[in-house]
Amino acid sequence: MPGEAITIVIMGATGDLARRKLIPALFELRCNGGCPLEMNLVGFSRTPLTHEGFRQLVWESVREFGPLALRTDEWEDFAKHLHYVTGDLDSLEDLELLTELLNEFERGFEGVANRLYYLSISPALYEVTLRNMGASGMTDEGNGWRRVVIEKPFGSDLATAQALNRTVHSLFREEQVYRIDHYLGKETVQNLMVFRFGNILFEPLWNSHYVDNVQITVAEELSVGDRAGYYDASGVVRDMVQNHLLQILTIIAMEPPSGVDADSLRDRKVDVLKAIRNWSPQEAALNAVAGQYDGYLGEPDVPPGSRTPTYAAMRLFVETWRWSGVPFYLRSGKSMAGKISEVVVQFRRPPSVIAGPDTEIPGNPNLLAMCLQPDEGAHLRFEVKVPGQGLTMRSEHMEFQYEWAFGQQAIPDAYERLLQDAINGDPSLFIRSDHIEEAWRVVDPLLEAWASPNAPRPERYVPGTWGPQAANRLLAEHGHHWITVCGQRYAPSP
Ligand code: BG6
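# 6-O-phosphono-beta-D-glucopyranose complex -> structure
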């Protein structure tokens, strides 16, 4: 019986992402049965390499970033299916050479020969690469499906994202396109939906009657380092907020999906973005804070006087029946006090009946913190009576940690999950074209406001802190403060 084969083509195969993430993830999938047995991996890149040289590069990347215990028999089998083509993405001739190699594999195969193309390349090359792929016949689906995975950033604003979507759609149907956001591959991000819709406890409280504010923090300890060549043109909003933070927000704020298929889920997420109040550039400036860490201007390749923000905090409102009036605070930055990604839902205080009609309950409001990384888990803070006379209250918590429940190595790599989904044809955890465009619509006024020559410079902050002071004022205006729970247990961040 003729079977199915797959060829995975990594464009940009010698780059950082391929070496650190994609190749180890594919090896892992191969070993744990997540890839079809008939699998070829073809690397394409400008760096001149022979097939043997590519095998060496893959070996090193698997050894350095792959599974802890590497079995040589598994490696030998994997290595037989590795191939390489040296070429330029903007050269049609080079892509024709690649196509020729792919056709050659497939000529010898009697069954269905599918292909997954992974664009792990500079976004500046997306358009030309896609067009050359079309012209060289790589998009033809004669003997199997063709899918394309496109890394972020997808565009740099609404207009460029729309233009890129037009090019993509001139070559591929939407269901062949897998726009990737690796945060959606994180186990803890997927768990947000299960936590909300797999329990009866939280959903009745998940609205403006009971929720006071929601905070989403994605903080990194690392500086920009040697990535300024890319980063300085992007800044934190394009690098983190438009994609990762807004993805998290949509899962927190969405209505329950009407089914388990990819589009039911993605429809509800797009609804959230559509409901985010449209800012004028003036309102954007008032509802957001830009920061830049001290020392950024001295990083390699940062142009003198750069105003690129390495930190952003903002207040967004989701204007739905469920969320009207509830501030969603988002913040992200480099060179911060810790690497922490978390969602904190702060509930309203209860009425003060047990403390007497004229006395405020002295305790703290309840908090639910979803720790996305590290210290993966969830914490629920509630008030208890301190034993003894009178009515003194104290905050205590219930806690769940992945490590306790599932063991140390329980959380698979995000890329492994996403690559497997793309191979299986499940786009649920990938971004649809309308989602990308709506997310740009949300942040475009802010990008415009910050790019204006009259905009103030981003406020400086000391590396290793929680960012600029103005970010604290942004919350204080509404009587709130930033809360950092994960890894710290309910410490207010100064
Ligand atoms: C990437 C950004 O998308 O996400 C990087 O380009 C950032 O700047 C990285 O460091 C963070 O990912 P993670 O999985 O380490 O939180």
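# post-check
The radius of gyration is 24 Å.
The longest helix spans residues 228-253.
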